Structures are given as structure tokens and as C-alpha cells.
Structure prediction request, 94 residues.
Amino acid sequence: MWDELNRNGLKWSLDDVDYLMICAGTVEVETIARHLKRTVSAIVNKASELEISLIVRKCKYEHLMTQRPNGRWRCNVCHSIGERIRRNDVRNKT
Ligand SMILES: [Zn+2]
Prediction:
């Protein structure tokens, strides 16, 4: 009986774990906790058990950043704006 329960007395369903895995790193832990109706510390405990990071990074414009396969963090919004500016610059010069 007891081993079915986590420290907060709530069993984690596969859907809950899936949600956590998908959202970790892109959704703030408070939001995840609210969605799963759990405490922040329950989310933190579970994340460390699953060895996933809950750190959410934002660029200076508060956009969500994503980690590239090479380990570097990039803001896709700023990156695509930068690409557009670069393209326009090339066009304007010709
Ligand atoms: Zn940005």
C-alpha cells in the first residue's frame, strides 16, 4: 500500500508523469503544480526522481528559451527575428 504513494500521499499516474516530462524546462514549476493539483515540492521531488531538470530559461525579452542538442540555450523568437533582420540586410545591400 505505502509504496504506491509518494511523500505527498498522491500516486503519480502515467499521464501525470508524461505531463511533467513534457513540460519540464518549458513550463514554470508553479504552473505544472497547479495543473497536476500537487505542491511545488512534490513536483520537484518527482523531477529529481526522474532526473529531469525543471529550470526554465528566458531571454532578456522574457521569451522562453529552448536547449539545443549541443547544450546551448536559444530563444527561438529572438533567433527568428534576428534571421529576418539578417535576410533584410542582405536584400537591402543588393
Ligand atoms: Zn527572446
